[in-house]
Amino acid sequence: MNELVLVLDFGGQYKELIARAVRNCGVYSAIEPGSISAGEIKARNPIGIIMTGGPDSVYLPLSPRCDGDVWSLGIPVLGICYGMQMMCHMLGGEITPGAAGEYGRVVVSPSAPSALLGADAPFPALMSHGDIVSRLPEGFAATSSTPCCPAASCEHAGRRLYGTQFHPESAHTQSKVIRNFLFDICGARGDYKLDDYIATATERIRQKAGEERVLLALSGGVDSSVCAALLAKALPGRLTCIFVDHGFMRQGEGDEIERAFASRKLRFIRVNAADRFLDRLKGVTDPEDKRKRIGEEFIKVFEEQAAALGNIPVFAQGTIYPDIVESGGKYGATIKSHHNVGGLPERLNFKEIIEPLSGLFKDEVRRLGKKLGLPASLYARQPFPGPGLAIRVMGEVTRDKLDVLRRADAIMREEIDKSGKKPHQYFAVLTDTRSVGVKGDGRTYDRVVALRAVTTNDFMTCEYAPLPHKTLRAISSRITSELPSVSRVVYDITSKPPSTVEWE
After folding, report:
1. First to last CA, the chain
2. Count of domains for the chain
């Protein structure tokens, strides 16, 4: 049995980043509602508890609280952002609105020795808060500060209660707080390996599927490919993979996917459905409506295929955590509905749904794929959204627009491949904007193509990739020369947040 750290969720967008940071240290983590009872926590026998951030002000009457007995269990607790404020509020401190909110990278200055911080030099950290701890509970000491926050971290070492106003789980925070909490405070051994996840997921798949056959929605992307390998390992001979070619794939991609999977030890079926998906999106311009219609049509195709194959009762898909959190999840705000989450209809003609990767981030999925023996061409592939180019065509999706975007996207990928320096994700967007231009001494008024390239390790946050101007110039020159209907190319240099990776 692996040692366990419980992550108690109070509605924070980054709860899975916390769980992932713990797992990356070799310690198993599980996310539970913040309302879990102290008795249930004690029964799970965790070596530590981490309380997440959240969108509420803790001093409001209806704000979420943990069981008050948690503080007396003797189990080390780390409260992050809202988690720290809740801990201080419930133990007699005072939380008030700050004079100014802190959002983004802020320099944190240690002010007292702390096993949690493990540092005495200032370090950058991600802050995202409006309230502050204005008075600490009895026995607590502030261990760091910022110009706007007198207690950027605090602790009661005797009771093993710790808090940070900043987010140590974020890649923007340059500290070892999570590791220090696990090993120096909780005494972790670090006995969890990704192989353990494979074993656990395999057993869960077998329990959910029973003796039934399983139908997998296979897009050919990283997530569904790894999902296929995991399901094939768990359910040999009982997996059918349906690749729905909705007509929104990149240039030549449908044929590439078919070649990649046709020779593997699973049943592969390609369904060419471009016409019905285009009909479904006729006249649609709202991105949320696009995603939902695509999700609904996907399910209809899968249900039809399941019936044709003898009513396969179990449906599987490669949903990963960023899909869920951006689609709203249980507590968070809906950023955008992914076709495989918020785009699903309320009623499905399957008696069971299996999503074995739903607790993992992209980098973990890639490592899992490598361990499962997938070729690098599959597990190292750059992400591609399920709705495909339909959410990279702004406004109504038409066949002509898709043809233009496919060629522009192919040019961008070709030129970046030549450069030898690949960002984590890069693609072209056909905007719904027209621009005046000059071609052959004549005036043009044609479409604008936007280029997007980002670097990220979790796809919850990202920075734009500073592509060389030589590469950008080559891409722009080729797109405007080879595509008569494009007059201008622009480069998106926005980070996430405030933007998302995709435009829609």
Report:
1. 43
2. 3
- For residue 273, pLDDT over 80 is answered with yes
| Same structural domain, 20 and 166 | yes
How many other C-beta atoms can be found within 10 angstroms of the C-beta atom of residue 221?
21
CA distance to 74, 75, 395, 396, 439, per residue, from 158 (Å): 10, 12, 59, 62, 74
**Sheet bearing 48-51, strands edge to edge:** 28-33, 4-9, 48-51, 77-80, 161-164, 149-156, 141-146, 94-110, 123-135
Considering the candidates 155, 169, 326, 415, report the single residue annotated as catalytic. Answer: 169
Q: Is 208 exposed, middle or buried (0-12, 13-18, 19+ CB in 10 A)?
A: middle
Among the three residues 379, 414, 429, which one is the final residue of a domain in this structure? 379
Residue 8's DSSP bridge partners are 32, 51
| Catalytic hit among 81, 88, 149, 154 | 81
In sequence order, the 6+-apart residues with CB closer than 8 A to the CB of 17 are 169, 170, 361, 458, 460
Mean pLDDT of the region 442-464: 87
- Is 186 among the residues known to form the active site? no
pLDDT (average), residues 125-142: 94
Q: Are 367 and 417 within one domain?
A: no
**Could you tell me if residue 459 is inside a domain?**
yes
Residues 460, 483 within the same domain: yes
Q: Which of 167, 338, 339, 424 is catalytic?
A: 167
Q: What does DSSP assign to residue 93?
A: -
Q: Is residue 386 part of a domain?
A: no
Query: Domain of 166?
Result: 4-185
Residues 290 and 258 in one domain: yes
Residues 26 and 97 in one domain: yes
Is residue 99 over pLDDT 70? yes
Does the annotation mark 169 as catalytic? yes
User: Does residue 134 share a domain with residue 78?
Assistant: yes
Contact 396, 283 (CB under 8 A): yes
- My answer on whether 91 and 141 are in the same domain is yes
Q: Clarify whether residues 73 and 105 are in a common domain.
A: yes
Write down the H helix ranges in 372-461: 376-379, 399-419
Q: Is 504 a member of any domain?
A: no
87: left (phi over 0), alpha (psi -120 to 50) or beta: alpha
Q: Which pLDDT tens digit goes with each residue over 151-186?
A: 999 999 999 999 999 999 987 788 899 999 999 999
